[in-house]
Automatic annotation (TrEMBL):
This is FAD-binding domain-containing protein. Keywords: FAD, Flavoprotein, Oxidoreductase. Gene3D superfamilies: FAD/NAD(P)-binding domain (3.50.50.60). Pfam families: FAD_binding_3. It comes from Cladophialophora immunda. PANTHER family: MONOOXYGENASE, PUTATIVE (AFU_ORTHOLOGUE AFUA_8G07040)-RELATED, OXIDOREDUCTASE-RELATED. The lineage of its organism: Eukaryota, Fungi, Dikarya, Ascomycota, Pezizomycotina.
Amino acid sequence: MAPLKVLIVGGGVAGPALAFWLSRIGANITLIERSQQMRASGQQVDIRAQGVAMMKKMGIEAAVRAACVHEPGAQIIDLKGRAHAFFPATQTGTGKQSFTSEYEIMRGDLVRILYKLTEGRPNVQHLFNTTVDSFTQDDESDPNGKVHVSFRDGRKEDFDLVVGADGAGSKTRRIMLGPDAPEPRHPLGGYIGYFSIRSTPADSDRATFCPLPGPRVARIIGTRKDCPELTRVYMILLGKDPAIDAAYKSGDLAELKKAWADMYQGGGWECDRFMDALRHASEADDLYCSPFEEVRLPEGSWSKGRAVLIGDAAHCQTAGGLGSTWGLIGAYVLAGEIATLYEKDKSLPTAAVVQAARTYEEKFRPAATATHGGSEGFSHLFPRSSIGIWILLLLARLAAYFRIDQKFGMFGDTWEWPLPEYPALERAQTED
Ligand SMILES: Cc1cc2nc3c(=O)[nH]c(=O)nc-3n(C[C@H](O)[C@H](O)[C@H](O)COP(=O)(O)OP(=O)(O)OC[C@H]3O[C@@H](n4cnc5c(N)ncnc54)[C@H](O)[C@@H]3O)c2cc1C
Ligand SMILES: *[C@@H]1O[C@H](CO)[C@@H](O)[C@H](O)[C@H]1NC(C)=O
Ligand SMILES: *[C@@H]1O[C@H](CO)[C@@H](O)[C@H](O)[C@H]1NC(C)=O
């Protein structure tokens, strides 16, 4: 009996996590990534709530802990650099969450840890500079149906299951849903941009955020620091800007740098130092920019036959900051549903993956999309005027004084959702 043959499109967080789980049940996995090499860029991501239990199940807690960024907490400052409020880091992964979680890790380190899990496994192939051009599927009712995939380099191959783990702009999703499906990406108004600069001794090791007054759009500038040599600059733009829209669409690094630098130059605090570096220093070539957006797919459309979406491709919510946590969990739930059916019958007709993909969405969707829609209009509420920012700083000061973040949590309580247990996956682990 040939093993279940799976194509995973996208080597970010969700893709390698799924490769790990499915490799344990003996599936034959091809993990493809569009970039020339592992895309280990990005700034800090945090693993919270069920993500912590998830990490333990995957056996990567020690590796993550060893790579963790030790950020003492987050502060809000004024234009003179004076701290008005300080929120210390959360010391436990569960319970009420502050801005800085117990497990803050650079996205690249997390991606590397996840890749390592399947490196050298005979049943997992990692292919770079590879993407899909198109695919078609046999009918869902065909018990042994396949997905017929054409790759960009002209190769063709059949798979039992194709998984789109290719992020918010997923091409797999576009192919799966067809050209007439409505666009599921909902812009929430606003962008984030991150880049690195050389540190100066005065740069704080706290996450530091400074709201900037200005006539047009609400802007925040911030810094975080995960290593001695570099400071990471965070730009948060809460509102529309045609120049940044155009630069983002062009995907051109020079245009993006210019649009962001024009937006923040002269903004106050250390903006000018940061923007000079953005324009001229090579450290800033890691500029990453993303709109605040949500991927909202109609119920029942996370999969279609033997194609299924995980991670940001299925349920991206930029503003929530939980993308990595949900990416890890979604991969586990899909693998768990497949393992449960697979364990019962190793000669499983591939129609079973159709069912597993549906059950995965039914179980996981309520958790992954619980806060969708909640950020609608948040960009309009953020102050732009000096007086508005003064009030904001005052409220932040009160919140920090009364430890509001610890009492109520800054990230809501979607933690009530119980992480499903999959004995079939756990058993596969012990046989390993
Ligand atoms: C470069 C980068 C930097 C990021 N930085 C941050 C950050 O600093 N903070 C934060 O909170 N979140 C960041 N994110 C988002 C965060 O990684 C995700 O929200 C979360 O990890 C969910 O991961 P995912 O695997 O679903 O998607 P992603 O992590 O976005 O990974 C998708 C992967 O698919 C690849 N891909 C895309 N299209 C194709 C295609 N057609 N064929 C093959 N491969 C394809 C991409 O190159 C990427 O490696 C970043 C994402 C990226 C890609
Ligand atoms: C797994 O798939 C690859 C590529 O599709 C193929 O070359 C290999 O023979 C397969 N391995 C098994 C054990 O079926
Ligand atoms: C990437 O793949 C394309 C074909 O899809 C090929 O033309 C190109 O040479 C490859 N690039 C590298 C660096 O291997």
